[in-house]
Design a protein that fits this description.
The complex is a heterodimer of chains A (343) and B (530). Chain A is an alpha/beta fold and 343 residues long. Chain A is built from eight helices and 19 strands. Chain A folds into two domains: 9-153 and 291-332, Ribonuclease Z/Hydroxyacylglutathione hydrolase-like (Metallo-beta-lactamase, Chain A, 4-Layer Sandwich); 160-286, Rossmann fold. Chain B is built from 19 helices and 22 strands. The chains are: A alpha/beta (343), B alpha+beta (530). The complex binds zinc ion (ZN) (2 copies).
Amino acid sequence: MAAPFSWIKPEPHGIYIPPADCWVDPSRAVDNALVTHGHADHARGGHGQTVATPETLAIMELRYRTGAEDDAGEIPHKAVPIEYGETIRLKGGVDATYIPAGHVLGSAQILLEHAGERVIVTGDYKRRADPTCPPFEVTACDIFITEATFGLPVFEHPPIEEEMRKLLDRLAAHPDRCVLVGAYALGKAQRVIAELRAAGHHQPIYLHGAMEKMCRLYEEHGVDLGELRLVADAKKGDLRGAIVISPPSALNDRWSRRLPEPITAMASGWMRVRQRARQRNVELPLVISDHADWSELTRTIREVDAQENWITHGREDALLRWCQLHQRRAKALALVGYEDEDD
Amino acid sequence: MEEFAALIDALVYTRSRNEKLRLIAAYLQATPDPDRGWALAALSDGLDFPAVKSSTIRNLLKDRIDPVLWTLSRDFVGDTAETASLLWPAPQEPPSPPSVSETVELLSAMNRKSVVKELPKLLDRLDSSGRYALLKLATGGMRIGVSSRLAKTAFAQSFDVSVEDVEEYWHGLTPPYADLFAWAADGAAPPDIENLPTFRPFMLAHPLEETVVDLGDYAAEWKWDGIRVQLVRAGGETRLFSRSGDDISATFPELLGVLPMNAVLDGELLVRGNVQGGEAGGAASFNALQQRLGRKTVSKKMLKDYPAFVRLYDVLLLEGEDLRPLPWEQRRGRLEALASRLPASHFDISSVVEATDFEHLSQIREGSREDAIEGLMLKRKDSPYIAGRRVGYWYKWKRDPLLVDCVLMYAQRGSGKRSSFFSDYTFGCWDGDPDEGADLLPVGKAYSGFTDEELKKLDRHVRGNTVNRFGPVRETDKSLVFEVAFDSVHESKRHKSGLAMRFPRIHRIRWDKPPHEADRIEALRALIAD
Ligand SMILES: [Zn+2]
Ligand SMILES: [Zn+2]
């Protein structure tokens, strides 16, 4: 019999499963990939075959044109859709089950089972309610491979209702200006819009051109975002008193000059730290994240109660320390190519 | 404290200078005395509570959370007060915030022992924003993008008085500035500082850069390599102030009994010697002066080995007369007349540099390195003495910097706005032939001279080329060359190389240059000026 868990190998470019010759969220192109969700540091283009939820595959198709034909008129990439709760048998007797991660549309934890051993790769996740995706499900396993993006005790995401209130109050206080919200184009933008609707804001919301397609994709997958318009089609007067959503990178660039005295806001977990907000010239920091904060990370590790925790991208040191202090076995994986999402 | 905390948070997130002025002015108008006076003090010069130090806060937190988690958090956030405000456990009771003046009272009453019990009580009365404001206030130096000048300008604007007047009175007053508010807000008589030995704001110079001036309109003086000081005598007392207005009288006791009349004088503090300008120059190097700086008490030997004197540049007030409105030329006349009444043991006058034209002056400047002088000052002959930096009146024309190629050795996270970047660099030169296995020895540290874009690239380089981590410090693989500019280099025990640079900054990043082609220690040693 093989040594325990010898079928799963953390490598610099992702988690490798030798019997299945398959990678989870590899940071370079491989033949067989299991992808947790559509963010660029987890989903890359160029794989031979990708197993992911239909939503994640649609996102990858939009971003990498993975459905494009080659010169011979064939589609070289093979997309293998898998629904939440469904299990797929890989080569070498490895089973993969996709479980909601509550991070963004289509995001999944991947439960891998082989020889009676269970390993979960979370990708990214959060524990808060999100109107755009089903919630994280706690699932028992032997090895829990968790992210640690906000793995420091200073990170505590406040209830999103408070942040929406801040945003709407500021908008109401400046009826001649607009509030420009920087939000990650996949997930954060749509969640902010959906939460604004839930908070009773039913005016049209204006989008930077780069947000449009992803919002449409969300709508096609049944997420109601209300009336959306493009900044490019609007007159300056229309934008007074309106909320405009753009990618974070557009907050301080030429593009924003067309807006009527924008109040610069940013929706991100990093906004918890004042200097982070200042670095981005943010006047209205909105602490909204699609990742687990410190208490969610530690609570999840407790609830999952795995024999061992492997910690991937983020602030591994601190979460590792917490595991030590609480007598939980843990190690940090040195994965490359994962970046702090603008989140 | 809630209003003050809200003001601090608003200021943190405000970019526009006008908006900052508006926010502070609105607070000062709406807040009663003495709260607003304490707030103004916190925003301008900062308040000092000896019992509360950054280390006090650190220790309080390390008693409450795991020290490793504290350190990791502090390194990430980059600011002790903010980290502590975020990590402080939420109190059981709903907050009952104290007023600003109650806060100041409580902080002032704390001593090293009681602070351990009393500061937590205060923290428990505040929410996260309040804790941040409290800790910033308690440790002085808010560092929230509001300069002392901006706070004073906001004060002036909110009560429609001139900021020059505010600056003039400022140093004669103490927080919570009751007299200042009575004058500005309630129309009382202006504060009387004539008989107080207080600091008057310096007139400062702009760098000359590309400008060419007409020597018909401008006079030239040497820019001596000491420290700019103001010597003030009033009300029977003499005090010596540094450029920032710090009272350094105790460090230079020999200068306190030698000014025979009431006056405010502007000059360069130097030590006797023959380095700057040679025998005739009469001044030792900056390094010699450095032996005297920063000391609380001075030994007889120090006084004998490094005798200090003031080389006069200007006279601001003389025997009750304010000379500042006069043109420089007239003040210069008064200064020359005055100099003859001062003891030559402790005073001389910075001579005017004669040149036939700008071209000639430029040649004289080239020689200033040999003379170990920092460069030249150009002063408009008709310029009044005005606080601060006004375009067109005074220029400084420093000699060109020295350059040497160094290799990046260590990088450290910056603070404040740069806390997420590795922005402080220690670099070294080769102690021999690198191809024969010589080591690098650190020769200096720089935090400036690069653009934000370059900073991002440097940060990436550090992260991608780390070979060792020591807390917030990363050791890199010694693969990147900096062309470092500096004003001079001196012997020093601070670095293993035995050398220390003055004002080092990154001049160019030599992404292209192989590290073994960087300079050797000998090359740097050859540039020592004294
Ligand atoms: Zn993600
Ligand atoms: Zn991620």
